[in-house]
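Archive maintenance. Older records in this collection stored only the sequence; we are now back-filling the structure field for every entry so that each record is complete. The fields below show one back-filled record exactly as it appears after the update. Entries are processed alphabetically, and GNAT family N-acetyltransferase is next in the queue.

ARCHIVE ENTRY
Title: GNAT family N-acetyltransferase
Organism field: Pedobacter fastidiosus
Length field: 148
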Amino acid sequence: MEITENGFVFSDKKELLQIDSIHHYLSKESYWAKNIPLETVKRSIDNSLCFGIYKGTKQVGFARWITDKATFAWLCDVYVEQEFRGLGLSKKLMAFMIFHPDLQGLRRYQLATLDAHGLYEQFGFSALENPERQMGITVSNVYDIDPS
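Back-filled structure field:
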C-alpha cells in the first residue's frame, strides 16, 4: 500500500525502508532503543509489518507492528524526524496504518509510550483494562551490555 499526501509518501513497502536512517534514529535519538545494534534493527524489520514516511528520497518517519496478523499487534519504534514534526505526519501515519488489511479483525492492539498518549487516544488506544493481568520481563540497558 502507498499513498501520497502533501508531498509525503506513506508506504508499507519494505524495499523503500532506509535501514541506516532507521538505525541512526533508534540508536542515537530515541529514548527506547539507545545503542541498539544495526543487526538487531535489521532483524526487527524483517519480522515486522513496517511503514515509512518519505519526502523525496529521504525517509522522515517510521513505525512497525509486531503481529501475528490474526489476533494481536504491538505498535513500536514510531518516530518522525525532528525537522518534520508539527506537520500532522504522525496522525496521517496512524490513519494509514490502522486500516491496513493485515491489521483488521485483531483481538488486541497494544503499544507503550512515554509522551504521545494524546496522539494514540485519537485512534482508540486507552490505558489497559486490568493492567494487573499484564506481565513482562524488562531487561534494562540491554544494548549497553558488552557481549565479550
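Update note: The two ends are 43 Å apart (CA to CA). The chain has one domain: 2-144.
Entry marked complete.
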